[in-house]
Amino acid sequence: MMESIFEVEEGKLREAKIITRQTSDGRGTISFRNYIVEFPFSLKDKLGIGKLLAVNTIKENSYLILEVADIIPMHYGMINLDSTIPKEIRNEIMKKVGESWYSNDEKEIWIDSITYPLGYILEVNSNNIQFKKGYFPPLLGSSVKILNKKAYASFVCANSNVSLGNILHEELSLDINLEKAIKYHLGIFAFTGSGKSNLASLIARKVLDNLPDTKVVIFDVSMEYAILLLDKLLEVPSRVVSLDRVPLNPVDASRKFLRSHVIPDDIIDIRDKIKKGAEILHQNGKMKQLYVPPEGFTYLTYADLIDLVKKQIEDKYTAISQKPLLYTFLSKLDSFMRERKLTVDDIIDDSINKLLDEIENLGKDAHLKENSSLFTFISGIRAYISLGIRETEDYDIENLAIEILDSSKDSPRLFILELPNLEEGRQVVATVINQIYNRRKRMYSDNPKVLFIIDEAQEFIPYDTKQKDKSEASSTAIEKLLRHGRKYHLHSLISTQRLAYLNTNALQQLHSYFISTLPRPYDRQLLAETFGISDMLLDKTLELEPGQWLLVSFKSALPHDVPVFFAAENNLDLLKDRINKL
């Protein structure tokens, strides 16, 4: 059994350390356990970052699982070498040490692996192995074994056929539970140029290919996703929704498409194919202009009406004799809504006229003057109702929400909303999410599931929101989506460069993080505290190349809470391959 889960080579647990530092907000401290494992120098190529080890604990047949955060080549001659030793002697020692690294004699050299516990115990018996959440203190000086590929895969990877790429240093495919991953929300965090959009597009592609009952809605600030997912836009029923006017003919539409969208350098050679794809999108009616009503224009809902009545009651200039009638108005309005099963989000119409007549008659019976504020207030409501709700053929947010929640097989599955103007975009994001959330809440269904991808999330859910620039509206809507959307099968993926600028209430709702290069220490420290990951492991993300990621998941994308370094599939290669077939 041992041979089937461990490599033949092993090391020794030499040292245990507890490292304590201040939290990122400076209000407290946080501690991490680190263990130093000594391995033969010959294993230097087998001990990459992220390698999993197992060490004996005080409980028999139980191993503590450790993850390698760093490796340091060590030499006996350098242990006590410091500045107190004369320079000539130091130089002579270092010369001999430098030469000995390349000799075949490994008596004085070894590898120190800096590891930290994952919080899992491996229990071994004659019949099987089992990974359990927990911790037992490891035994210093005991053997430390390396998990082989089979054991690593059974512990780390999900039992699925959906792969995001290859695990670094393991030559294994990173298989994830995609349905569970999006159910509990995802986050992509990396500096500019790390491949955030490429990874988000890859995840959207995997959802469309593997989850037929899930739709994808992308809020695109950078005007790039229509290019990155052009093949999927052509392949599945879809919409490219713009706030700008859509040209009347395919040729002009394709020219505008090329001018307004970002084309990555790696696919600039298929520019003509992209232009042809844009023409096909227009010909198939997949390009839509979103009608957004003028700022301040809205329909009066029952929530608005209730609020207006309450303000009348609270107004110090409202006559005392009218306030009992206003309380009666609220009571009758409550009964009216209950009888008709109306919600506060419903728009008022002429069906409320009968209730207004009752309140007017009560006012007359109370001998109120004709110019009293109550009668003036009711007249204003009647004037609004007389305008009616205008029915238009414009593709507005209501039509968009209906299409997104349409469960029929031929309804669009991919929506890309292009929002180059941030202030206007924030209001659109808030309105779209609220519309879909409220509709799903009123008419509950688990089909379709919806994944919202929010690009440049720091612009929509900032830490410091303002009503003036609409960030308060978008942040409130997205936070509600993250907090409560899972119950209604509404899910989210947020992508951003900076965690420091994000609404922390929203950040805490994410169960899976994709992390690449984050140059600022605060961002890395915040992630370390959120997931209990070693600072040293997160610092290794600084060495990742574009397209390489650290995935950390709370039992959603992966079966266990194991940080995994992997190289993602290149979305551009997939796009190029499929577009070339046009």
Automatic annotation (TrEMBL):
Gene Ontology MF, one: kinase activity
InterPro entries from the UniProt entry: HerA_central (IPR002789), T4SS_component (IPR051162)
Keyword tags: Kinase, Transferase
Pfam families (alphabetical): DUF87 (PF01935)
Residue ranges constituting the Helicase HerA central domain according to the UniProt record: 163-429
Name of the protein in question: Protein-serine/threonine kinase
